[in-house]
Amino acid sequence: MEATPAIAIALVVLLPFVAAALAPLVYRLVGDFTGWVVALVPVAGFVALWGLLGRISGGEIITVAWPWAPSWGLELSFLIDGLSLTFALTIAGIGAFILLYSGAYLKGHKQGRFLGFLLAFMGAMQGLVLADNLVALYLFWELTSVASFLLIGFDHTRQAARRAAIQALLVTGFGGLALLAAGVTIYAISGGWELSAAGDLTSHLAYPLLVGLVLLAAFTKSAQLPFHFWLPNAMEAPTPVSAYLHSATMVQGGVYLVARMTPHLGGEAIWNLTLMAFGGATLLWGAIAALRQTDLKQMLAQTTLASLGLLILLLGAGTELAVTAAVLYFIAHALYKAGLFLVVGALDHGTGTRDITMLGGLRDPMTLSFIGTIMASAAMFGLPPLLGFFAKEEMYAALAIGQFESLLALVALVLGNALLGAVGLALLIKPFMGQLLPTPIEPHEAPVAMLAGPIAMGVLGIFLGFVPTLAGQLAVAPATSAILGVPVETHLKFSVDLLGPAFWLSLATWVLAIGLFLRLDLGRSLLRRAATTIGWSFDIGFDWLYFGIVRLAGAVTRLLHHGRLELYLFVVFALLVVAAIGPLWLLDGLPRGPQTLDLRFYEWGLVGLAVLGVVTVVCARSRLFAILALGVQGLAVALLYLVFGAPDLSFTQFMVEILSVVILALVMTRLDLDTADRRPLEDWARDGGVALLGGLAVTILLWAVIEGPFDVRLSTFFNAHSVPIAHGHNVVNVILVDFRGLDTLGEISVVMTAGIAMLALIRGARRSKRAEIAPVEPAPQRKRRAARKAAA
Question: Is position 13 within any domain?
Fold first, then answer.
């Protein structure tokens, strides 16, 4: 029975988060079988999505939307088309094998927390590729960064893992801010939050800005130059994380974003040439760097950089053949790269090392791992009839068209694929062929749960290579249609054009790959010598920038947070003056002020009382007298409330002033209240000046408000709703207790907290004073008392 799209979205996006919360409990119940149990979550999502494959391959686009924030016009909307379905099926399918593998890989360890993080990572990535709402897309984008931070730094006791996790979070988080800005810009242009309704954005004035923001987000997530350095460092994560992150999740998020934005931003030179330039540079950088490594995981990490660059390059080319090649290569790469990472984990598990120079002759003791490596490496090498071969043929055919930029890209592709082929040969031949070398532990095969993934994905890659037409109809053509925005028919078939340029370029790639493999040790030595001579890397540059920002933040903190309260208050009130008067002055909104002061005699008396209080505070000869005089201004305000018909406010003001004076007097009892505070003339002038300016600024602001038209909407609302909603005739009390209830509760909580703190200070002062006057017990008596206590 086919699941409805809403149920499919719930199973794919929401169920992993629920399972993540329950994973620790599942581990307590079933122990080391947790991997088998939680693997059912992505299996359920895969089955639900597979049921929609027929509709999507037929050209249908499915949308699902749930109410989210209607007042803001936000819906939690999801879009299922050929592109999102291809990514979602890949994430779910490979995720099932990753969870199964993790249970066996971490056998004997507490797996609940790790599998919970992995499931949350899966849910975030599924939400990213299926979200149509721009706000939801941004939230899922950032969730993938947070989940990867937790997974990369899972072994938080190691400094290298902590550093790699922080580095990945900072770099991808920086790109996330760019994506947020791009989403807001698209909303401002299109008037809606759904990306599918944004339309063509290439003609808008903000198009260059949008291209920069989107590509910044994509390049940081997919580790394109110059943001590539975080990806190899992410190998500090456990092997299942590396396999998942590099094959179907996280780093593919940027590739997905570029593909998803192509109908809206693609087709222009600034988009296409930027993608091709950065993609080609990243392809060659990663492929060359892979030859320099001896750690198997690092070799695979660098080849992932190269593959991501290759995908970005093909999407930048933008033709039907190039995009078809990109989709085909994405599927082939996900299968063989996940398989290779899982085999490397099996090698590490079975031998105790990942150093390729320490491995050899493992084909007999680890036969199943050898078979899995054969299938994955052959796909990486691009041998027919595997799916990787047809992807390579497509990309060569797409760019062999004679244009200058296409020829440059074609050279980069041939050289990059040859380098990747050399690494694929090294991964197959070095560990498994030749004589058996001594390893830290006796070589033994990994358990079936760790080998199921490499074998199944290798077989699937071979099967799809024999039926490329089926893969084209079900996945490649629908995804290509979604990226280009026009219907595309599949042209893939099981055949090899021996006379076409693509095959001869493939042949040249294989020959070059074999030659590079035969000179692998020499190439590694030369590359390491060059790196030592240069002595700088983007990774070191990140450290310079990171610690420079930390030192700058420390210097600014020491400058601004110097611990002098009087300067803090001076800055606050000075900025208050600027904020109050500055906009009025710049916008020509300064009030005219009252022309005459028509005050009655008692009103003049209240003004005089307030002025008398100010003068008394300033001129007080003792602290106690100044504290008592502080209440005079409050008394004048309370009387003003009373005169103008607000007895409840007047009563409240009386209570506040009485409590303020009493509390200040209690707190200040530890000071000499008979002493006056003498201040230097410059302090007196500075603080007095800013106080006068502050009073003047507030007065001018109030005058500006009074001179404007009176808006009766709030008073009308409260008068109309106080009795029917809050059942109170005293509007002020209703506002405080009902309409502003939480605000009032917060104010009461602050006052209560301050009172508790002051009470603790007063009691602490009393205890310290008693301790100062308490007699010191002689040492012999203390010893006798301690002996009696011990005997008792």
Answer: no
Last residue of a domain, one of 483, 498, 518: 518
Residues 650 and 749 grouped into a single domain: no
619/746 same-domain check: no
Predicted confidence (pLDDT) per residue in 450-473, tens digit: 999 999 999 999 999 888 888 888
Cα 57 to Cα 81: distance, rounded to the nearest angstrom: 9
Q: How far apart are CA 185 and CA 177, in angstroms?
A: 12
Q: Are 469 and 390 in contact, with CB atoms under 8 Å apart?
A: no
DSSP state of 131: B
Together in a domain, 329 and 471: yes
Kindly report the CA angle at 142 between 109 and 245, in degrees rounded to 5? 45
Please state, in angstroms and rounded to a whole number, the distance separating the CA atoms of residues 32 and 54: 37
Distance (Å) of CA 589 to CA 584, 700, 702: 4, 10, 12
Report residues of the chain scoring pLDDT below 50.
1
Residues 709, 713, 714, 720, Cα dihedral to 10°: 140
pLDDT value for 498: 72
Q: pLDDT tens digit string along 16-31?
A: 999 999 999 998 888 8
Q: Rounded to an integer, what is the distance from CA 766 to the centroid of its chain? A: 50
Same domain, residue pair 334 and 470: yes
Residue 157 Cα distances to 48, 115, 160, 161, angstroms: 40, 19, 9, 8
Using CA atoms, how far residue 746 sits from 180, 476, 741, in Å, is: 32, 57, 9
The pLDDT of residue 674: 61
Can you give the CATH number for the domain in which 703 is found? Answer: 1.20.120
Q: Are residues 654 and 586 in the same domain?
A: yes
Whole-angstrom Cα distance, residue 725 to residue 720?
9
Cβ neighbours, 10 Å, residue 60:
13
CA-to-CA separations, 171 to 70, 164, 257, 282, 658, in angstroms, rounded: 33, 11, 17, 17, 55
The CA angle 201-207-208, to the nearest 5 degrees, is 155
> Which residues fall within 8 angstroms of residue 707, CB to CB, at 6 or more apart?
591, 592
> What pTM was computed for the model?
0.79
In a domain, residue 2? The reply is no
Q: Write out the two tokens for 654.
A: 């009386």
3-state SS, one letter per residue, for 684-746: HHHHHHHHHHHHHHHHHHHHHHHHCCCCCHHHHHHHHHHHHHHCCCCHHHHHHHHHCHHHHHH
Q: In whole angstroms, give the CA distance from residue 276 to residue 265.
A: 15
Last residue of a domain, one of 465, 486, 518: 518
Instruction: Please indicate, yes or no, if residue 33 is contained in any of the structural domains.
Output: no
Tokens of 239: 């092997």
Domain carrying residue 436:
278-518
Phi and psi angles of residue 74, each rounded to the nearest 5 degrees, phi first = -105, 130
Alpha-carbon span 255 to 465, nearest angstrom: 23
The per-residue pLDDT for 288 is: 92
Is cis: bond before 438, omega within 30 of 0? no
Is 329 part of any domain? yes
**C-alpha–C-alpha distance, residues 239 and 244, integer Å:** 9
Return the closest-CA partner of residue 165 out of 121, 116, 104. Answer: 121
The whole-number pLDDT of residue 1 equals: 46
Q: What is the pLDDT of residue 772?
A: 56
Both tokens of residue 164?
A: 């790699």
Contact 409, 511 (CB under 8 A): no
Q: Are 236 and 298 in contact (CB under 8 A)?
A: no
Q: Which two tokens stand for residue 97?
A: 């094998």
744 and 702 within one domain: no
759 with 683, same domain: the answer is: no
Tell me: do 476 and 569 sit in the same domain: no
Please give the backbone phi and psi of residue 565, each rounded to the nearest 5 degrees, phi first: -60, -40
Q: From residue 660, how far is each of 284, 655, 665, 758 by CA, in Å?
A: 72, 8, 8, 13
Q: Give the residue from 210, 206, 208 showing the smallest Cα distance to 181.
A: 210
**How many domains is the chain built from?**
3
